């Protein structure tokens, strides 16, 4: 059964996927997962539901930081890749099958790279690119795939004998933002991060402002906004949005402890040691010790 039979001709499933993506960025992870489980159960032999559930768990891991979430993600990835490979074998003329297979490998690239495991990231890079290229060659209107193409064109300069094509990459990711059906938010987030990397801070903020208006309670997008000021060296603005992150993270200790760290670092630069002592007073040592140790160092400095 082809993807357009399942998604494009099934308004119910298509609307579920879009609803699940929307809720994912509202960080209602359990509700989003239940929606993607419905998509999976609608056709357990199709990779779409597994892909969106994997993407959800990657977002959840970035937001909450627990290793158990990462382990679940990789187990889900194995299942999803297996389903996608079987689907492509049975439906070699469906470009969406290659998109999802490439998408699974792309998710692996992101998470391995995030954790500094560049060997496994590289192992997934080429099957990701190969399958995404196949999908676009078969159907150039699969605009969601241009995110992966753009990411490769930007970062390929890190590979031996390869040069980066940054402006081409930005154009490809913009296509995914403007015309993609499922990756608009992810593509916007990715482009903003690349602009920050390129020190195009105001360009990054223009993108993120729109997402914050749409998702005012989202930590995911507010982190990008904070980072644009932090890396630009705009200390007062970074502190302001750091406190906003603290407020949004009262039920998320991973984000909370990170925001405390960055605010404390910036306050120390301003010589506001009393405020550092106030916000670091009740930091726990048993959760995310790598962050609590960093905060302890900053707290000790605030007493000098």
UniProtKB/TrEMBL annotation:
InterPro entries from the UniProt entry: TPR-like_helical_dom_sf
Protein name (database record): Uncharacterized protein
């Amino acid at each position: 059964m082809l993807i357009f039979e399942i998604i494009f001709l099934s308004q119910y499933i298509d609307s579920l996927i879009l609803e699940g993506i929307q809720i994912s960025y509202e960080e209602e992870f359990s509700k989003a997962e239940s929606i993607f489980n419905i998509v999976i159960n609608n056709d357990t032999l199709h990779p779409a539901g597994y892909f969106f559930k994997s993407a959800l768990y990657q977002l959840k891991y970035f937001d909450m930081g627990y290793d158990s979430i990462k382990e679940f993600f990789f187990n889900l990835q194995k299942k999803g890749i297996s389903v996608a490979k079987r689907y492509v074998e049975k439906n070699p003329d469906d470009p969406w099958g290659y998109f999802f297979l490439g998408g699974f490998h792309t998710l692996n690239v992101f998470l391995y790279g995030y954790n500094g495991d560049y060997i496994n990231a590289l192992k997934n890079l080429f099957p990701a690119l190969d399958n995404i290229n196949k999908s676009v060659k078969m159907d150039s209107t699969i605009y969601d795939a241009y995110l992966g193409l753009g990411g490769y064109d930007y970062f390929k300069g890190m590979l031996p004998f390869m040069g980066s094509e940054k402006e081409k990459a930005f154009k490809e990711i913009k296509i995914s933002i403007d015309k993609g059906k499922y990756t608009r938010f992810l593509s916007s987030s990715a482009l903003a991060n690349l602009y920050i990397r390129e020190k195009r801070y105001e360009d990054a903020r223009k993108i993120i402002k729109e997402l914050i208006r749409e998702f005012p309670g989202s930590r995911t997008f507010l982190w990008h906004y904070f980072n644009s000021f932090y890396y630009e060296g705009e200390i007062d603005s970074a502190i302001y949005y750091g406190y906003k992150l603290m407020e949004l993270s009262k039920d998320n200790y991973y984000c909370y402890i990170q925001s405390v760290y960055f605010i404390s670092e910036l306050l120390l630069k301003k010589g506001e040691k009393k405020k550092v002592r106030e916000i670091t007073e009740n930091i726990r040592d048993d959760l995310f010790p790598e962050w609590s140790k960093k905060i302890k160092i900053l707290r000790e400095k605030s007493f000098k």
